[in-house]
Amino acid sequence: MELEALRSIYEGDESFRELSPVSFQYRIGESGDPKAFLIEISWTETYPQTPPIISMNAFFNNTISSAVKQSILAKLQEAVEVNLGTAMTYTLFEYAKDNKEQFMENHHPVNSTTSISNIISVETPSIAPSSKKKDKKEQLSKAQKRKLADKTDHKGELPRGWNWVDVVKHMAA
């Protein structure tokens, strides 16, 4: 019944996503907001008597430090303890929406892409010079291109028998 309720409540809400009949994601905050985060809730076999699995391991949350993630998860676990035994997915999503500012007060965006690009740029110089020599293609002049085009047909293939002189020389030897 909770599944049907969630589907009807969040129908048309682009922040809500049903990954499977027992797993849901909800984006707290607008998509361009640096303090936005994604919560994933998965129901266990004995849900709601046992707590659902709450995760913030989505790629969307890469800019959030692990300390902030842990504090959000701890606060959500407190809400789980209060609501144990009842359908709580909607309650948890709404609790996170209502307390977004409090959850993200210590958030300072961790720019993981800069650290990765710095690592790559440190390693790349030793590899780059040798790869540049291999990647360089032969440049043809206009005259060379024209001569090549005159030798081939419209498909870029050489005409039949183009090397017959070489064959005759080979057979004569």
Please write out the topology.
Layout (H helix, E strand, L loop, with lengths): L1 H8 L6 E5 L2 E6 L8 E6 L10 E3 L10 H18 L5 H10 L1 H4 L8 H24 L6 H10 L12 H9 L1
Antiparallel strand pairs: 1-2, 2-3, 3-4
Helix pairs in contact: 2-3
How would you sum up this structure, described in words?
With 173 residues, this protein is an alpha+beta fold. The chain is built from seven helices and four strands. The chain has helices at residues 2-9, 66-83, 89-98, 100-103, 112-135, 142-151, 164-172; strands at 16-20, 23-28, 37-42, 53-55. Strands 1-2-3-4 form a four-stranded antiparallel β-sheet, with helices on one face. A hairpin with a 2-residue loop joins strand 1 and strand 2. Helix 2 (66-83) crosses helix 3. The longest helix is centred in the last third of the chain and has 24 residues, at 112-135. The chain is elongated. The chain starts with a helix and ends with a helix.
SS strand fraction: 5-15%
Helix count, DSSP H or I runs of 4 or more residues? 7
Question: How far is the first residue's CA from the last residue's CA?
Answer: 90 Å
Q: Which structural category do the helix and sheet elements fall into?
A: alpha+beta
Helix coverage percent of residues? 40-55%
The chain-level mean pLDDT equals 76
Number of strands: 4
pLDDT under 50 segments (min length 5)? 112-132
Largest sheet: 4 strands, antiparallel
Specify Rg, calculated over alpha carbons: 31 Å
SSE pattern? HEEEEHHHHHH
Strand order of the biggest β-sheet: 1-2-3-4
Shape: elongated
